[in-house]
Design brief:
Layout lengths: L2 H7 L8 H4 L8 E2 L5 E4 L2 E5 L12 H14 L8 H5 L2 H13 L4 E5 L2 H12 L5 E5 L4 H9 L3 E5 L4 H18 L3 E6 L11 H6 L7 E5 L14 H4 L8 E5 L9 E5 L1 H8 L3 H4 L6 H16 L1 H20 L12 E6 L2 H14 L2 E2 L1 E3 L8 E6 L7 H20 L1 H13 L7
Parallel strand pairs: 3-12, 5-6, 5-7, 7-8, 8-9
Antiparallel strand pairs: 1-2, 2-3, 4-10, 9-10, 11-14, 13-14
Protein name: Glycine C-acetyltransferase
Family: Belongs to the class-II pyridoxal-phosphate-dependent aminotransferase family.
Pathway: Lipid metabolism
Length: 423
């Protein structure tokens, strides 16, 4: 079969809904400065879908640093990859500051987070090694594992008994192949908000020989006394062998970094294909990242405000009868029973009639029969916006109890004769 013909016949699990949902449920177009309130479809909405945890997007100091760096260097400097012509004193200074902050010997700045994680996994393991990773891992981890030419095993999400069984299997394979074991998990699972059981995983090092790589994209800046992440929060940072985080969450930018023992970071610097063969992170983002990190370290009241808002929102949702799962982070999932059609009606009601914008997730990302609304509180949200949102969810709860969305979904399916379940 011709490749394009196959694509046309099977556009993928999300692509099949493009005609129905693009621009609204998928690839929604929001307008205005990123913040607690934005414009959607010409209407103002309270916005709960930006990972701008610390409100850095509109921080005056950040905006000034970004603007000055762009004016001085432009958006292209330096040209070329780090290994060829893209190394600067600013890059090295940022790496030193990041390493000191997360209490590691060394750090290496990456131009993008997703590609950086994929490439880090590829560089760390050979075909003789075995990867063991959490079943709920982010797509960047999954794609990195796909590049691996050796054996890999998944363990049930945050299940230490499952991890131990898979480490036993991995040990046998590694010993037979003359390889080692790399365990990969997340500091914070970004969909449901649970912390990874990092300390418990580290305890298994007493029984098994493995190295640990932690993706802490949602934990950096939000967890721990200083904001240094999940390792600081769980008092086990020194046992995390490779610490990874992105600048796309608390740092309100793009890029990422790896941190660990100096010799291992040096190895990665010389072997990460996504960095060696790609353009260096631009100077405005590097200088801007230094300013963001300075603010994170010197203004702890911002993180305190973030957690004040998290508790208000999460407690308010629970008081109104909503299931927010086992989240113990800022990520706030609202889990509701229902079909994808009900999800579309529910989300449209929230956006059009209550002015509340949240992300919506359905199968196959979560189990069938479930709807997940994900809210991301930030330090920039006000009490007014939180109360406005809780009032909307209280009305939503009444409609759910009455079966309003279920009845409306059945009517829609019958009237439109839909042969699929729109997202």
């Amino acid at each position: 079969m011709d490749i394009f013909e196959r694509i046309k016949e099977n556009p993928g699990p999300l692509g099949q809904f493009a005609d129905y949902g693009e621009g609204y449920f998928i690839f929604p177009r929001l307008e205005g400065p990123i913040g607690p309130r934005m414009k959607f479809q010409g209407k103002e909405v309270v916005f709960w879908s930006a990972n701008d945890y610390l409100g850095m997007c509109n921080n005056p100091e950040v905006l000034e640093a970004d603007a000055k760096a762009a004016a001085e260097y432009g958006m292209f400097y330096p040209m070329g990859a780090r290994a060829m012509s893209g190394e600067t004193d600013e890059h090295l200074a940022l790496e030193k500051e990041l390493a000191d902050f997360v209490k590691k010997e060394s750090a290496y700045v990456l131009n993008f987070g997703y590609q950086g994680m994929v490439s880090a996994i590829d560089a760390l393991v050979s075909r003789h090694d075995v990867i063991v990773y959490d079943a709920d891992s982010h797509a960047c981890i999954v794609d990195g594992v796909r590049l691996h030419m050796g054996k890999s095993f998944t363990f049930r999400h945050n299940d230490m008994e499952s991890l131990e069984k898979n480490l036993e299997r991995a040990t046998k394979v590694a010993e037979a192949n003359g390889g080692g074991i790399l365990v990969i998990t997340e500091g914070v699972f970004g969909m449901r908000g649970m912390q990874g059981k990092i300390k418990e995983i580290c305890e298994l090092k007493k029984k098994f020989n493995f190295r640990l790589l932690v993706d802490d994209a949602h934990g950096f800046g939000t967890l721990g006394k200083t904001g240094a992440g999940v390792g600081e929060e769980q008092n086990c940072q020194e046992q995390i062998d490779i610490y990874f985080s992105t600048f796309a969450k608390s740092m309100a930018g793009f890029g990422a970094f790896l941190a660990g023992d100096a010799e291992i970071i040096r190895y990665l610097k010389f072997n990460l294909r996504s960095q060696i063969f790609a353009k260096s992170l631009t100077m405005p983002m590097v200088i801007g990242a230094r300013k963001r990190l300075e603010i994170l370290k010197s203004q702890p009241e911002i993180k305190a405000k973030l957690w004040e808002n998290v508790h208000k929102l999460q407690n308010g949702l629970k008081e109104r009868g909503f299931n927010i799962g086992l989240t113990n982070t800022c990520v706030t999932p609202v889990m509701i029973e229902g079909t994808p059609v009900e999800a579309t009606l529910l989300v449209k009601d929230l956006r059009e009639n209550f002015g509340i914008f949240t992300s919506v997730v359905v199968y196959p990302v979560i189990p069938k029969g479930m709807i997940l609304l994900r809210l991301i509180p930030t330090a920039a949200h006000t009490d007014e916006e939180i109360n406005e949102t809780l009032a909307a969810f209280e009305a939503l709860h009444d409609k759910l109890v009455s079966g309003y969305y279920k009845d409306a979904a059945e009517k829609l399916l019958k009237e439109e004769n839909l042969s699929f379940k729109p997202i």
